Amino acid sequence: MGGRGALELWWADLDEAERAQVVELADSGGLLPPPLAQPLLARGVALAPAAWRESVQDVPVGWEVPDELVDLLEELRNGE
């Protein structure tokens, strides 16, 4: 699937605490942790790994918040 539709479905599935965490991460330039990133990856959303565990190079610690998600959050804030 991927893209905007996948992001909207993912957002709809989050609980209030997870949504607050995503907004905070997007605002601060933080990284999406695996519990938040894995469902996006499973839906075909392309994410850029941004940090790696020292002991396991093939397991990212976090992924960059995609621009499409930042755009979606901005639209939600503006009531669009």
For this entry, give a set of tags.
alpha+beta; single chain; globular; three-stranded antiparallel β-sheet; 80 residues; 4 helices
How would you describe the overall organization of this protein?
There is one protein chain. The protein has four helices and three strands. The protein is α+β, with helices and mostly antiparallel strands. The protein has a three-stranded antiparallel sheet. β2 and β3 form a beta hairpin. The longest helix is centred in the N-terminal third of the chain and has 13 residues. It is globular, with a radius of gyration of 13 Å.
What's the N-to-C terminus distance?
Answer: 23 Å
- Give Rg in angstroms: 13 Å
DSSP strand count: 3
> What is the averaged pLDDT score?
89
User: Taking strands numbered 1, 2, ... along the chain, how are they ordered across the largest sheet?
Assistant: 1-3-2
- List the quaternary state of the chains: single chain
Number of helices: 4
Q: Could you say which overall geometry the principal axes of the C-alpha atoms support? A: globular
Structural class by helix and strand composition: alpha+beta
Following the backbone from N to C, one meets helices and strands in this order, namely HHEHEEH
* Low-confidence regions: none
Beta-strand residue fraction? 5-15%
**Main beta-sheet strand count, sense and barrel state:** 3 strands, antiparallel
Helix content: 55-70%
TL;DR of this structure?
The protein is α+β, with helices and mostly antiparallel strands and 80 residues long. 55% of the residues lie in helices and 14% in strands. The protein has a 3-stranded antiparallel sheet.
